[in-house]
Amino acid sequence: MNLESIQNNKIKTILQFSIPSIIAMVLTSLITVADGFFIGNYVGKEGLAAVNLGLPIVYLFLAVGLMVSVGGVAIAGMALGGRDIKKCNSVFNQTMCTAMVSTVLLSIIMWLCFDPMLQLLNADTQVVGFFKDYYGIMLLELPIMVINASFGMFIRGEGKPQYFMQVNILNVLLNILLDYLFVRWFSWGVKGAAVASLLSALVTLLCILYFFIKKSSVYKFRRFTFSGEVLGSTLLNGSSEFVGEMSMSISMFAYNFVILKNIGVDGVTAFTIVGYIAYIFSMVIIGFGQGASPLISFTYGAKEHLLAANLRRITNFMVLIAGAVVLLLVLVGSGWYSSLFVKSDVVEQLVRLGVIIYAVSFLFSGINTISSFYFTSIGKATESAIISSARGLVILLICIFTLPPLFGMTGVWLVAPITELLTLFLSLFFIGKESKNQSRRLAQG
Q1: Distance (Å, rounded) from C-alpha 308 to C-alpha 305?
Q2: Domain-by-domain residue ranges, the chain?
Q3: Using CA atoms, how far apart are residues 285 and 326, in angstroms rounded to an integer?
Q4: What is the pLDDT of residue 103?
């Protein structure tokens, strides 16, 4: 990375780093959507509901993975900006080992928690059976998914985002092909979808390992001395991402609990289908964040604080435009989308209204997400964690437990836009405070 090039080509540089990341993240999300399509059409709405009940587990893995990888890549990026290559490699190797050990342990813990979780949700027998079939295999796949995503962040930090994008294209195409074979032709049901994800993730891992063994110019596999200080800084820097994803895990569990109690399986199925669009859009925003983060860390580490702030402002504008475009597409295509996954008049009617209301939140969620990424990238984990916890836990849970009981399924759809709008005020407050601090430093310097 070159400071002069970033300064003179801010928009171009952000897009160069973000577009491959966005494509990679969207492709990753399409795996989930493909699973949903095949499960919904060839297993039924109970299969879709079962997959959705386990999403808190997926978000928990993402919480641990993002905390370790985002925190680690931020430290490595600032070290790279300061031209400390030795520290870069040490942080890289420690981060990947930490990600691997923590996610394997998490799989073991989650396997032991299956029955208590299902008993608390009070799901029916058929849904419970599908849940155990699917997530019993996915507990093998999820650690590999996290490791692949963590490696991908370092590949982008090295300035080679195109390679990770190409690997993700292979991953998605292979997953869809295997879904078609295992679910449609072999009739393996939800187990087939899980096996398809596992095999695709393993192939992706092999391609990534090849990059770091043969192609990497900065990050190399080396023996390293474990540093408690680096681990502490990694976890602190990535704490906002942990809070954000962990909050999603808790809130998704709360969503499922409230919807099952007030609406039933049809409500969970409808929420799952609407959630696919929300998931894809969140991956677009995270892609922007992951693309901009190494640039922000690099420029901030090089003492170019105003440039880092400019990169954040430009990225925020981009995600606002993206949110408006997706909202427009949803307004036009809600009828078609509602019938894509299941053949149920009740579910289709719920989805048709819900997807429009939910999509309003996209106008605000992008700015909140990028703001959180920005504060993480400049080493201000507290502000980032507060934003993440507000939108993903505190405000969100208040809305989940008040709006659906009052307004039924309409209340479920209103939760997201109200939460994101209230969080936006908090994000703007911290951004304004940081801008004042930068102005004060310039005046003193």
Answers
A1: 5
A2: 3-444
A3: 12
A4: 93
